[in-house]
Design a protein that fits this description.
The chain is α+β, with helices and mostly antiparallel strands. The protein is about 60% helix and about 10% strand.
Amino acid sequence: MLRIKKLDIFIAKQFALLFVGTFFICQFVLMMQFLWRYIDELIGKGLSMDIMAQFFWYMGIMLVPQALPLAILLSALITFGNLGESSELTAIKAAGISLMQAFKPLIYITVFISIASFYFQNNIGPQANMKMAQLLISMKQKSPELEIPEGIFYDGIPNCNLYVQKKNLDTGMLYGIMIYRMNGSYEDQQIILADSGMLQSTAEKKHIVLTLWSGEWFENMQAQELAGNASVPYRRETFIAKKIVIPFDGGFNMTDASSLSNNARAKSLKKISHDMDSLVIYYDSVGRSFYTTSVEMYYPLKKVSAKDSVIVAQRANEPQHNVDSAFSKLRDADKVRVVNFAKSRIQSAMSDYNFKSMMMEDADRTIRQHQIEAFNKFTLALSCIIFFFIGAPLGAIIRKGGLGFPVLISVIVFIVFYILDNTGYRMSRIGEWTVWFGKSLATVVLTPIAIFVTYKANNDSVVFNMDLYRNFFMKLLGLRLKRHIAGKEVIINDPDYPNDAIELERISKEITDYSHNHRLISAPNIIKVFFKFEVDNEIERIAGELESVIEDLGNTRDKVILTEINHYPIVSEKAHTRPFDRQWLNVLAAILVPLGAVLYIRMWRFRLRLLHDLRVIKQTNEKIIHRIEGF
């Protein structure tokens, strides 16, 4: 029986409040990113408020499945980051409740959101995608004067191809204009050239007025018009200023949805499955038809009856015709004619194959697009669960709440997901990768990460302890921290100055003897370093005794002594004896000569540094002893 505890309600409430807020934040960010892509279709179009409201409404609905995983990641990260930062997570674990038990209510919520995301994509999202596609196409067709590009032909105006060399966006003037018009047929074409012009819509938005200056008009005359005067092939007109009225509905009209029948994003899973079966059957029949036609055209096969079987057998035993010898017997004119005929046949075959190949590539692309959208409905829903098992454990490990560090981690994770998912989508769309591999790439990569961080968080790992990594790299690079001992405001026991002075004198004598016996300035023995190293217990003992004296002198009120004890270096006790603690690693390093040479030089450097540290310790000891004797 499912029992709801107060702790479950508390964690679920914390998560729900953050989820609602982060969802709208993520939704807003994604909408702004989407809006930036289509800003050209909106600016200066004169769209009404109801059209703009529809655009933002359908855009918001369309982006809901993408905002849900990011909102879950961010809210889970902040929730457990806040619990860890306020020590509530520590109290929960102290009460005997494991981290997975604390995750339990949010796991149920995340699974419910994942199922809702799949339902949304399958039933509500396709309608929003269809409406959004209709709106975008309709917006693009509105006010064509604002869509005319420079340097290419624009065919957005019916029966016209318009070329503009340059345009002024501030004044609306067009320069270097070339227009091809077709009023009835290809035989009735008009070519208009003008130095400048302006394109405007009429008040009722049913026509556009093209005003041209300093140009020429060339027009082919129809056959019936040329019957009486066949010597005039076209009409030419030169003008200083001319206005042309072109029928065009410039108002906002919703595009017919039938033109978007192949839009896979606007289909449910059932519709995608049904349409894919229809597409496969249709294109298979087209492919078989292409194959049959090609075989019949270029590789004709004659059916041989039983009556002609004897003749066929006789012909099979006859010697084959030599094409080269037959070609060499032709006259030069016949050779040219035969070569041209063969070349023409080859070019015709290549054009036919290219056309058929283009059709089949379009068919494959359409089928792949349907497969991608079918996979996408599952992967986006599954990403909600994966993002939770990344965000919640990271929050428990990092233990940082608020919108600072959690937002940074969320952005990094989402960027990785977006790059992998977008790469898989593009490679699957062009057919370089299979659809299942491309669309599952992000899921396959992030799932092990989710398992890893969940395991680490459940075992109280310090995998994200920055101090641990800093100390590791400082040790690896031979760096070390400086000693920093600050004066204490409250001192219970004063230092035992006479005893500390005696200890420092003894340590200085031991350092002198150690330096004389070990000859740190000389190169270390390779055999002892890699194969027969000895533990340097003496330097470990000296360093331990020195730290005890420093700890006692840290209670001093004397600023001179306090300054001097901060001059003591932190002694590396093992780095000057061998590269690794384990013997087999040292032997392996010696076998790998380049690595062994680097480690050998590094260890020699540590020996020289130890020698320098011992000299600094002796000098500091003398100064502190002199200060103590002056009391």
